[in-house]
Design goal:
Largest sheet: 7 strands, mixed
Helix content: 10-25%
Order of helices and strands: EHEEEHEHEEHEEHHEEEEEEH
Strand order of the largest sheet: 5-2-1-6-7-8-9
Number of strands: 15
Structural class: alpha/beta
Shape: elongated
Number of helices: 7
């Protein structure tokens, strides 16, 4: 089959790599968002998908919106199937019906749970028991199409959203390739989504704020779900403190109780209280400074600054 692939960030790259040269399929074009300014010098940089496509010598369509011009360029490629993984824009008619078999989407949740732009982050914040991936038929309504295949894996308590997304990107690429093969063979069958949908909108900076009034499990779930983006943080003395690494305390029996948000710097670690058990801050980044070990940061704290807000 002739495939058009649409995607932008790094989690979409494993799917593109999996489809290039796979079976009798041919990726005839790649659609991605335009180069974006990155780094302190704001250098225009191709998206990870664009870089991967160019490495394989594939034609690339860079488009901020899938408008008439982008649609015409995609239509000229004569695709049998469109494949989309985290492109970052909506596919509407007439582009939706341009490929003979329409478009399929790899989404990083078991639908209808967590429809939207940040399914992995929301699933981890909610402390779901499992994370997953689905391949579904793209329709005008957000993430609502019939599902060809879905798979789930345990939500490892140590995984941040970044690590979980990397894992799901790799495993989801295999799931996607299976569905593409099934569509080519005429054996793939999609079924309607069952259950009440939950929504996963893009996270804002405020979503990364840690609430120490909650229990340790909930605090750590939000930390993991917002790491690395948009980033977990709290405030101390009115200034923002980024929390780059945190973990549960192995044993709390011998630890004197800490009130919610109370800091206890020790020689080799820094503990902070929650509604039930303390957690350990491992790496932090104070305002205006670089990342550092929390134990080093804690040794310089004034006695008056011992409560996170």
């Amino acid at each position: 089959m002739r495939l058009v692939f649409a995607g932008t960030p790094a989690p979409a790259v494993p799917s593109l790599e999996r489809l290039v040269g796979h079976g009798d399929h041919e990726v005839v074009g790649v659609v991605t968002r335009p180069d974006a300014p990155l780094g302190r010098k704001r250098v225009l940089t191709p998206s990870p998908v664009a870089a991967a496509a160019e490495a394989h010598g594939l034609p690339v369509v860079k488009a901020a919106r899938l408008d008439e011009e982008a649609t015409a360029r995609i239509e000229a490629l004569r695709p049998d199937l469109g494949v989309i993984v985290a492109y970052g824009g909506l596919v509407r008619e007439p582009l939706l019906s341009t490929p003979r078999l329409g478009w399929i989407n790899l989404h990083f949740s078991v639908l209808p749970s967590w429809r939207g732009a940040a399914p992995v982050q929301h699933a981890i914040i909610a402390d779901d028991a499992e994370l997953g991936a689905s391949v579904f038929q793209l329709v005008p309504e957000l993430d609502a199409g019939d599902v060809f295949a879905a798979r789930s894996w345990p939500n490892d308590a140590g995984l941040t959203a970044g690590a979980a997304l990397e894992m799901l990107a790799d495993r989801g690429a295999d799931l996607l390739a299976e569905v593409v093969d099934g569509l080519a063979a005429g054996t793939a069958r999609a079924v309607p989504q069952v259950g009440e949908p939950s929504l996963a909108p893009k996270l804002a900076i405020e979503d990364g704020r840690l609430d120490w009034r909650l229990g340790a499990r909930a605090v750590l779930a939000r930390f993991r779900g917002t790491t690395p983006e948009p980033g977990a943080w709290t405030t101390l003395g009115g200034e923002r403190l980024k929390v780059l690494e945190a973990r549960p305390v192995d044993s709390v029996e011998a630890i004197a109780p800490l009130s919610a948000g109370e800091l206890r710097p020790e020689r080799r670690r820094v503990l902070v209280g929650t509604a039930d058990a303390p957690i350990e801050l491992v790496r932090v980044q104070p305002a205006g400074k670089g990342a550092m070990a929390a134990a080093d940061w804690g040794r310089g704290l004034a006695e008056s600054l011992r409560t996170l807000e």
